[in-house]
Amino acid sequence: MKIQPVQGTRDFYPDKMRWRNWLFDACRQVSQLYGYEEFDGPFVEYLDLYAAKSGEELVNEQTYIFESRGGEKLAIRPEMTPTLARMVAARQNELRKPIRWFTIPNIWRYERPQRGRKREFYQYNIDLLGVESIEAEAEVLSVVVDIMRALGLEKGEFVIRVNNRYYLEDLLRKLEIDIDKKDAVFREIDRVEKLKPEAFRTNLETVGLSADQITALDSALRQKNFGDFPALKSLWEKFEQYGISDYVEFDPSIVRGLLYYTGTVFEVWDPTKKFNRAIMGGGRYDNLITSLGGQPLPAVGIAFSDVTIEEMLAQQGKMPELPREIDAYVAYYSAGEKATAIKIAADLRKSGLRTELNILDNSLDKQLKAANNSGARYAIIVAPDELQRGEVNVKNLRQREQKSVKLADLGEALKG
RNA sequence: GUGCCCAUAGCUCAACUGGUUAGAGCACUGGUCUGUGGAACCAGGGGUUGUGGGUUCAAGUCCCAUUGGGCACCCCA
After folding, report:
1. Which of A58, A235, A84, A223 is nearest to A162 (CA)?
2. How far lies A42's CA from each of A66, A102, A205, A299, in Å?
3. A171-187 b/e with 16+ CB inside 10 Å = b?
4. What is the spatial distance between Cα A85 and Cα A299, in angstroms, rounded to a whole number?
5. What is the mean pLDDT of chain A?
């Protein structure tokens, strides 16, 4: 019987796992540099947690829902923010503020997999809660910029597109577009880039906008200047102070689908747009904690997944080479030297060196080949003649040089 | 959830319009080389052609279903 993996799930063989760890390490390191702490939560929640505020389609069509044995409606987390909000609301008073948290949960969404989209993925989330000023946005985006740079992406290789939903609402008001039509109009704005111009017009006509309103809206969306809109103006001043203004640009067509965003929204994109989706998405969600029964608490967050970031790196030829690496491989001439080899390996490990011991009683020839494939920097060859002098051969596998070393000096010889 | 494309050894691919025991390169194992690795040469193992049905004298090749992968839509990380 041959069983294939479940659609859209991920197998991480060691080669791939090294990459995942590399990615997670970068996220953790940078987040901690800014004083953010890692947290985690359960990967199942009551469905109601999402029903409240996530997007309708996300909950109704893309969430894995099941009934527990007790008959409760449960959901496998399709995003992390509601869990974060629930946890914060539950201990709101005792938590030190502002709250700087990050997490890398495993997320599930029931969608048709395609490039940059699986059903199972890891999603780095960073959130800053308790800061009303737009300085929060600047700090969170600054972390994001540093992570991208830690991953090897420089200026011009990614761009953070920023907007503010209130700016859009303002725009609708100026164009005298009925506020009741906001959701429908936002939806079209959100995908204006993907729609053909005619489709954009027709869709808005269907919503009930006049030809003049559509033309005015269309040209306003091309305007890459937010004028004197206060929130955006001071946000750009902060970007300047944080030294990240080279990485951001204003884009009035950024809306975001999730319902809980208020004010600032942002997305990270591949500037070549070869990958025609946002790599990251986030924004301000000032009302989510209250809607889950907490006291008012402003919040800003952003998230990206291992799948999209991999696509981004691959697209730009930036996937790192991460070969297997250990410090030493212990080989031995014959079974007679094995006991000594075991002891040497144990000693090396005690001194913190990653040491693989040859475990098959095969020829030296094979052992050296294995040593080479193990990714070891050094091969330790335990052989009778040298052993009589209290020495072993130490072979630098990269430089192909070999010397005989006293057992007592072995640890020192491998440090360089 | 809708439409379309794809599926042959661990990997990348072959196999004329359906026609004899499904091939190659790389990788792997062994040998040339029983105290020393990445080269070369030689040899070898490994596929009931994703799975299950059907058509046919005959199917990797045609049909149906199913599973997985990909692209667009949808949505979104």
Report:
1. A235
2. 15, 15, 45, 21
3. bbeebebeeeeeeebbe
4. 9
5. 90
- Give mean pLDDT, residues A171-195: 87
A305 touches strand B (CB under 7 A): yes
Q: Within 10 A of A321 (CB to CB), how many other CB atoms are there?
A: 5
- Give, as one character, the DSSP assignment of residue A114: B
How many CB atoms sit inside 10 A of residue A319's CB? Answer: 14
Question: CA A197 to CA A218: how far, in whole Å?
Answer: 9
Instruction: Calculate the angstrom distance between C1' of B35 and CA of A381.
Output: 10
Domains of chain A: 14-315 (3.30.930.10), 326-415 (3.40.50.800)
Instruction: State which nucleotides on strand B lie below 7 Å from a protein beta carbon.
Output: 1-3, 28, 30-31, 33-38, 50-51, 67-77
The predicted structure's pLDDT at residue A256: 87
Structure tokens at A397: 């596998």
Per-residue pLDDT reduced to its tens digit, A303-327:
999 999 998 888 888 888 888 889 9
Non-local (6+) Cβ contacts of A407 within 8 A are: A344, A390, A391, A392
Residues 6+ positions from A337 with CB-CB distance below 8 Å: A382, A383, A384, A387
d(CA A119, C1' B71) / Å: 17
Vertex A280 angle, CA A278 and A286, to 5° = 115
